[in-house]
Structures are given as C-alpha cells and as structure tokens.
Design brief:
This protein has six helices and seven strands. It has 238 residues and is α+β, with helices and mostly antiparallel strands. The longest helix is centred in the first third of the chain and has 24 residues.
Length: 238
C-alpha cells in the first residue's frame, strides 16, 4: 500500500514538473500572429540552449561610444517617453559586430553615436498602431530586427572635437532625405553616410534602404523575437 501511494505521489510530482517545463518553454503568439518571448524564464532557457541569444549591454563594450537614447526622453517622433530607462542591448553576435565597426571608425578618428538597439516588441506594436505606414516602422506581423536584438540605430561623431557628423537628414526623420539613395544634401553629408556604411558592412551589417542610421546584423532571420523590457534583461544577469 505504501509503495502504491509512493508511486502515485511520484507520478503526480513528475507530471507537475513536466507541465511546468512545458509552460516555461512555450512561446506565446502575439495578436498579430507572431511568436514572441515575453517571459524572462523563457529568455533564460533560450540563452542556456544557445549563448548567442543573450542580449548584451553595449554600454560596457564600447567605451568611447556616445549614447543618445531618444526613446527614453520625449525627444522622438512620438514626442513622449517610450523607454523607462536609457539602456541599449544587442544580441551577442550583433554586439560583437558593433565593437568591430567601432574599431574600424576609431582608426579614422571617429566614434559611434548610438540611438537604439534592442526594442521590446510592444514598442513595435505601438509604433505601428500610431503610424500605420510600414515604410518607417516595422510590421508587427513580422516583427522588427530591433525586437530580435539584431538592429542598431546609429551615427558618428568626431573623436577630437566631440561634434556629431553631418548627415543628409536627422535621426528618425520620415522623409526621402533619410533614404540611402537620396542624392541631395551636401557632399560632406553624403561622404559621412558612406563612411558609416562602409564600416558597418565590413563588420557584418547591412543597410535598411529607407534609413541611413539603421543597420541589421547578418543572420537576424533565425533569431527569436523578444518582448522584454530592458530592466528585466539587466536583472536577469548571467
């Protein structure tokens, strides 16, 4: 009788354990039909399975980079604070690629100005529902490369003078002046755009044709989409 009770108890405990594991490993589907990781436990499981999935804090990786996180202020196209903190994360391969790009530019006397990296999926949904036009914001049915930690928004500054370099348009400007093929603007601005492009492509990034500041790292298509806030990622640690 005691053995039978033990077996029943063991079976129940094992079922509970398996159920809990299944619950943690499941990736929910967003209302736009995209699988999105929104549980820090699932994120940790993904990183344990593949360390490349880790989102790294870029602030400690490029000492001379300047961080202007406009979404942590009201100085952005929505004119209100979107991020609760001015932090910037990238998936491990993209972060390492960005370090390489910084090294390339440093030899030319230039430093990186970083505007945005990993972006929670909820913010992509917000942008889409406020703007609607997927020329300048991502379609939540596909998700953004930012949601995967595989995209970076950036510009450059002069390491000697500290001044931001002239570009054909402002950051996050929704106009043709932001296009890579835009032929207007000063020769200096177009030359700076090309310097940034050359360094980023050498480091493994590719352009987004509608935004000179936006670059995607190779292999983004196989990466999970996250909807985790920056403080959750920082507190998770590894």
């Amino acid at each position: 009788m005691a053995v039978k009770n033990f077996l029943i108890l063991f079976s129940l405990l094992n079922s509970f354990r398996l159920s809990a594991q299944t619950e943690v490993s499941e990736i929910p589907i967003s209302r736009y039909g995209l699988p999105v990781i929104n549980d820090i436990r699932v994120y940790k499981t993904q990183v344990a399975k593949n360390p490349e999935n880790r989102l790294l804090d870029v602030r400690g990786m490029i000492p001379d980079a300047r961080f202007i996180i406009t979404y942590a202020t009201d100085q952005n196209f929505l004119k209100r604070k979107i991020y609760p903190s001015a932090e910037l994360f990238l998936r491990k391969p993209a972060a390492e690629g960005l370090v390489k790009a910084a090294e390339i530019l440093r030899k030319q006397g230039l430093g990186l100005v970083l505007y945005d990296g990993y972006r929670p999926y909820a913010v992509t949904v917000l942008f889409y529902e406020e703007v609607g036009d997927t020329t300048f914001v991502a379609d939540p049915r596909k998700g953004s490369k930012h949601n995967r930690g595989m995209a970076i928004d950036l510009s450059m500054y002069n390491l000697k003078t500290g001044k931001l370099l002239e570009m054909p348009s402002g950051y996050d400007e929704a106009s043709e002046r932001a296009y890579h093929e835009y032929a207007g603007g000063s020769d200096l601005a177009k030359r700076n755009r090309q310097i940034l492009r050359s360094a980023m492509e050498e480091a493994g990034f590719s352009i987004f044709k509608y935004e000179w500041w936006h670059y995607d790292f190779k292999g983004w298509g196989s990466c999970p989409t996250y909807d985790l806030w920056h403080d959750e990622i920082r507190k998770a640690g590894f």
